[in-house]
Amino acid sequence: MRARFPALVLALLTAALPPGGTFIDDDGNVHEGGIEAIAGEAITVGCNPPANNRYCPSQVVTRGEMAAFIARALPLPATSENRFIDDDASVFESSINRLAVSGITLGCNPPANDRFCPDREMTRGEMAAMLVRAFDYPAAAGDRFADIAGNLFEDAINRLAAAAVTLGCNPPANDRFCPGDPIARDQMATFITRALGLTANRPPPRPFPVVAVVPREEWGAMAPELERMVPHTIERLTVHHAGSQDGVNGPPQFRGWQGWHMGGQDWPDIAYHLLIGIDGTVYEGRDPAYRGDTGTTYDTTGHFLVVVEGNFEVERPTGQQIASLGAVLAWAAENYGVSPSTIAGHGDYAATSCPGRNLESKIHSGELRQKVETLIAQGGVELLWP
Fold first, then answer.
1. What's residue 14's pLDDT?
2. pLDDT exceeds cutoff 60 at 12
3. Measured between alpha carbons, how far is 250 from 246 in angstroms, rounded to an integer?
4. Please, what sign has the CA dihedral across residues 76, 77, 83, 88?
5. Portion of the chain with pLDDT greater than 70, in percent
6. Hey, what domains does the chain have and what are their CATH numbers?
7. CA angle, corner 342, sides to 352 and 347, nearest 5?
8. Residue 105 has pLDDT above 90, yes or no
9. Selection from 96, 8, 83, 91 nearest residue 45 by Cα
10. Taken in order 244, 245, 250, 254, is the CA torsion positive or negative?
């Protein structure tokens, strides 16, 4: 017998939040209000225990994590049953079994369905099916999206849309659902907020920027060869770009860089101290206490090396990237006692087009320096290292 919660709507007062809210890594995220709403109900506690000051909004939800979200959100009965053979070592085993006895999950390997696949990424289609079973949304006539005809989860997706729990995946048109795409933690927060009838709770802005640096282990970095690294004192701020457009970005790209740097170039670690992704996310690179590396002829001793993902000879850095670049350089200037006047591009020290004309122009025009000086004058930037 599966649980049905069609009328479960939580009428709650929206709690006042401190500037920036509960987590340090979701400021300005379109789903921040939903994240705060489910945090207020203890449906999420964070993603980096024991500190739990990060939500990891872009991280993909696994099936095990999805089970935990739903089990915390709904009054599901406890059970001693163990429905699946592959979740005994999972921290989400209890939540998974509660979902199973409530009829919210059937398994991941039909027709046997004796496995749950707790570590597998959750797709948007699978998410729709689980939420529809949990909340017992009624049938809906006609397809709401152009990309779901014949999909295994077509009926569940239409029910979810009719209940206004999903709007689509391609705003502003929103005529697609993207059922095979993995679902990120920030998106999941909004879905659960809508499903429970919670009020999105967006916090007031922080008085100064806070930048959370994604730890090396989160993007899959290899361990550095510390015995070969050279200590140095930072005296200047230097900007690079990736210089490639191979269709790969984010952590897979960074792992490729590190593999080439350590394997192909025989360097002790990835060359750069900080990495800035396409969406402006800042990632931990080499420990700044050690000199970076370069395939060109300049001496990197004393340089704080920041690489921005993209090829800025042919494309332009995003506003998010420029904002993050200004923030990390402002932090570095204050933290190391270095003047913003030392901000330069790779090409200012070696015969190279790096960091690309569309980023270099922001350096040579003084625009980036002015941004950094303004941030410092307004109180500086807090950079939260792992």
1. 56
2. no
3. 12
4. positive
5. 96
6. 32-196 (no CATH), 210-384 (3.40.80.10)
7. 5
8. yes
9. 91
10. negative
- Rounded distance between C-alpha atoms, residue 369 and residue 236, angstroms: 13
Cα 186–chain centre separation = 8
How far is residue 102's CA from residue 76's CA, in Å, rounded to a whole number? Answer: 7
Residue 120's nearest CA partner among 47, 192, 214, 183 is: 183
As beta bridge partners, residue 240 has: 307
Using an 8 Å Cβ cutoff, are 35 and 221 in contact? no
C-alpha separations of 309 from 5, 331, 356 in Å: 45, 20, 11
- What length does the chain have? 386
Per the CB < 8 A criterion, the answer to whether 5 and 74 are in contact is: yes
Q: List CB contacts of 80: < 8 A, sequence separation 6 or more.
A: none
The predicted-structure confidence for 14-63, as pLDDT tens digits, reads as follows 568 888 899 988 988 999 999 999 999 999 999 988 888 889 998 999 99
